[in-house]
Amino acid sequence: MSAPVPSGTRHPMVLDTDTAADDCFAMLACLLHPAADLKAVTVVAGNVNFEQQLENALITIEQSGRGGEVPVYPGCRESLMRGWTSAENVHGDGKGGHSWPKPSQRPEREHAVQALLRLADEHAQELDLVCIGPLTNVAAALILDRELPQKVRELYVMGGSNNFRGNITPAAEYNFYADPEAARAVVHAGFNLTIVDWGLTLRQAVFSDAELERIAELGTSLSHFFGIVNAPTLEFDRTAGIPGSTHPDLLTALTLLEPSLVRRTSRYFVDVETSGEMTLGYSVFDWGVLGREPNASVVEEIDREGFVGTVMRLLGDERTGGASRERLGI
Q1: Residue 195: beta bridge partners?
Q2: CB–CB of 253/129 below 8 Å?
Q3: How far apart are CA 244 and CA 291, in angstroms?
Q4: Res 149 pLDDT > 90
Q5: Contact assessment for residue 82 and residue 93, using Cβ atoms and an 8 Å cutoff
Q6: What's residue 9's pLDDT?
Q7: pLDDT at 188 exceeding the cut of 80
Q8: What are the chain's domains?
Q9: CB pairs under 8 A, 24+ apart, for 320-323?
Q10: How far apart are CA 102 and CA 106, in angstroms?
């Protein structure tokens, strides 16, 4: 990881997302955290139907109290080579099945890949990019501009599984599995890359029933939004034997915005399997066995109490989260 942004400095950033459930919460962090200067949301094919992902992003911006302030750009609607891999069995419609008020803001006409390249030029060496879905948009941007890694200050990726099990196949984590060719291109492109993986999520980013109850008791519109949107994923996680709800995307955003939450990282050579019959999308995290130069910093331990506390503060902020029934559409 590069040197931390000086205290009081806001990160010009882009969030690249396949907006459903925890993606929405990561977006809230980027919209509300005092260190974030969110320039754009770019949407990529992933968790749920693409048009629904766009709407979920707009709903989240509206629920944050920042409707119309952050543009949403539609990006690649399929992976580079393999079409679309749905995760609707996990996330439902990605908005908790709730009929939210229709946002007045609409998606931009500019394609997400073009928007990303433009913003990287406008904020050269200053822009942070947080990717919490498949990496198709970033890989497509690399095809158009091979200098993109030198223009982006930090690239934070939620993806892969550091010598741990997958979450869509025994071997693979969803984001890398859904577009393994894109993931492989991005990890080898030369970005200043930090990865938050699925194994870390299961160890340190599961919200227990007691913590979920604490969030509900905040009584703000944002805590209600969290509870409604989180419900389908929580139900799926419980059926999968996970004692709570998983929050890898939210963790990824906050490790960038609050570097003090990161207690330990290690350097790894990371690669992605693109041809295995049973290991498609498998992520290799090599600690030195292959003799290859490391290409990523991998977060291995966080301040879990600090992570939960930050989430509680963001969801409990009455300036943006006052319990508004009109905003919630109930």
Answers
A1: 157, 298
A2: no
A3: 39
A4: yes
A5: no
A6: 72
A7: yes
A8: 11-328 (3.90.245.10)
A9: 320/32, 320/64, 320/65, 320/66, 320/222, 321/65, 321/218, 321/220, 321/221, 321/222, 321/223, 322/220, 322/221, 323/219, 323/220, 323/221, 323/224
A10: 10
Q: Which two tokens stand for residue 80?
A: 């580079």
Q: Where are the beta strands (DSSP E) in 108-235?
A: 127-131, 152-158, 193-196, 206-207
How many CB atoms within 10 Å of residue 309?
12
- pLDDT on residue 323: 40
pTM > 0.85: yes
Phi/psi for 228 (5° steps) reads -70, -50
Dump pLDDT digits (tens) for 220-273: 999 999 999 999 999 999 999 999 999 999 999 999 999 999 999 999 999 999
Residue 170 φ then ψ, to 5°: -55, -25
Pairing of strands 11-17, 36-43: parallel
pLDDT at 330: 42
- Which pLDDT score, from 0 to 100, does residue 84 have? 96
Q: Which amino acid is at 262?
A: V
Q: 179 — phi, psi (to 5°)?
A: -150, 75
